[in-house]
Amino acid sequence: MSRSSFTHDVIIIGQGLAGVVLFETLTERGLRVMVFDAPLEGRASVVAAGMVNPLVFRRTLLSWRASEMLAIAGAFYRDLQLQYEASLWHPLPLIELFPTAQEAGIWQLRMKDPEMERFLGLGTSTDQAIQVMPQPYGHGEVKRCAWLDVRAMLAIHRDRALASGSLAERKVEEADIVRSSDGVEIHGRSAPLLVYCAGPFSTGAGMVPVRGEGLTVRIPGLDLGSMLHRGVFVIPIGNDLYRVGSTFAWDNVWGGATAEARRWLLQQLERSIPRPVEVVDHWVGVRPASRDRRPILGRIGPHEAVFNGLGSRGVLLAPWSAQHLADHLLTGAPLDPEVDPARFSA
Ligand SMILES: Cc1cc2nc3c(=O)[nH]c(=O)nc-3n(C[C@H](O)[C@H](O)[C@H](O)COP(=O)(O)OP(=O)(O)OC[C@H]3O[C@@H](n4cnc5c(N)ncnc54)[C@H](O)[C@@H]3O)c2cc1C
Fold this sequence. Notes:
Blueprint (H helix, E strand, L loop, with lengths): L9 E4 L3 H12 L4 E4 L14 E2 L2 E2 L4 E2 L3 H19 L4 E3 L2 E4 L3 H10 L3 H4 L2 E3 L5 H4 L7 E4 L3 E3 L1 H14 L3 E2 L8 E4 L2 E4 L2 E3 L2 E3 L10 E12 L8 E4 L1 E7 L2 E5 L13 H14 L5 E13 L5 E6 L2 E5 L5 H18 L15
Parallel strand pairs: 1-2, 1-15, 2-11, 7-17, 15-22
Antiparallel strand pairs: 3-10, 4-5, 6-10, 7-9, 8-9, 12-13, 13-14, 16-19, 16-20, 17-18, 18-19, 21-22
Helix pairs in contact: 1-8, 2-8
The structure holds flavin-adenine dinucleotide (FAD).
Flavin-adenine dinucleotide (FAD) binds next to helix 1, strand 16, strand 20 and helix 8.
């Protein structure tokens, strides 16, 4: 079948972070893209705090391919905000208040690593709000961090895609997908390729969904100009509002928000910011994590592919992942075995 006999080049299921970043990546390459999305309870991107940070705090080590991912993510989101004419990408340093002398020592050790030294600083923050915080063991600074206004990005994409007829707000059931020898058809739209960006709702092999909860709080007068980590992350989003999160829960994943998580988040917050706090919002979602914490990208059928497994670092991983998947699907570039869905079916 020729290109003109299909209504589109690619159909995507899911308009979360994965779906939007892939949509824009493919459109930029001149493809006609159609998205189907239904706002399912527990979806991840609408609650993502949006933080981009190359450090795994638990181990004080860089995350998977952090340097490469950061460069691609920064360029992608900067370009997108120009295209959308909106302020989405907010570079901010991330400050770690060391909980123990040992943590401070590990940090100093890591700063001697040539790969890590350009990301780490020690006691360098000039942020007034940080300087007055209790920090008996000092603080470290993670450079090259940012937060992305994911909700705004999704909302703008939704409006634009609805206006151009490239988004249909409806759920796709398995029975809605009509497969033929040269492509797929869904609700009257056809394409030679279908990509599942279904996030935590995927039933594919290797997925380990993880519930996360967080709060939006108002703290008048704090005037924090950096992101902060001490047990939880605190992200200033303007107008005295801060996002505080997140929890990780592997049981009762679809159970919704809990009073226990709210209590825990506020307790953690009070350790570094002992001030009156007004809770404005309590959010909960399910992270689409994979068993080995790598994305899941590639073909899963002759005319079907998957883009998933963004886990807790979706903002950082999505632009690289979309590029890698597009190169593989469109130009036949080899798929990195670390992201190949086949690794879970062996
Ligand atoms: C509490 C919390 C905080 C987080 N904070 C951060 C952070 O600070 N930084 C960061 O990088 N990441 C963060 N994350 C992770 C981030 O949210 C995810 O990595 C990312 O949003 C995953 O995007 P996705 O598009 O794969 O999934 P989703 O956002 O869940 O999108 C999937 C979409 O597909 C739709 N869908 C699924 N099946 C169908 C179907 N059959 N038909 C139609 N539509 C369908 C869903 O309704 C949804 O809209 C956080 C996650 C949580 C839960």
